[in-house]
Specification:
Elements lengths: L1 H34 L2 H25 L4 H22 L6 E5 L4 E7 L8 E4 L3 E5 L1
Parallel strand pairs: 2-4
Antiparallel strand pairs: 1-2, 3-4
């Protein structure tokens, strides 16, 4: 369960980023067709390159071999997605295992007493996220 939740969060986050870049690309296509100038074409090709690069990074970071890079790039968004899941499923307190480069660190979601924002405290072997 915990590993699956971690993988599902990772895939959802990477898919959201790829979808967002594709939506921006479609919007720029609509704008550049109306401009029909060198500026419109320049904007079109820049956004095309950014969209291709975002899709490449999404595929690249989805592999387990690159988890270290994923944790460096996406830890903040990943933890926010996990805290959102804990708000959707308030009765469940989950321990999510993040695979690091050589060691294992545990991220534990705990429900806070009040409606406070997310707080993150870190120890030597675990990180506690209070939602």
């Amino acid at each position: 369960g915990n590993v699956m939740l971690n993988i599902a969060t990772k895939c959802t986050l990477l898919c959201f980023i790829a979808t967002f870049s594709a939506i921006i690309y479609v919007i720029v296509i609509a704008i550049s067709n109306r401009l029909d100038s060198i500026h419109g074409w320049f904007l079109y090709f820049i956004v095309l390159i950014i969209d291709i690069y975002c899709n490449f990074l999404g595929i690249f970071l989805s592999f387990e071999y690159f988890d270290n890079y994923y944790s460096k790039c996406c830890t903040c968004c990943h933890l926010n997605c996990l805290s959102l899941l804990s708000k959707v499923f308030p009765n469940n307190t989950e321990s999510i295992i993040n695979k690091g480069d050589k060691d294992m660190s545990i991220v534990k979601l705990e429900k806070a007493d009040s409606q406070s924002p997310v707080s993150i405290s870190s120890g030597p072997a675990e990180t506690v996220v209070t939602v």
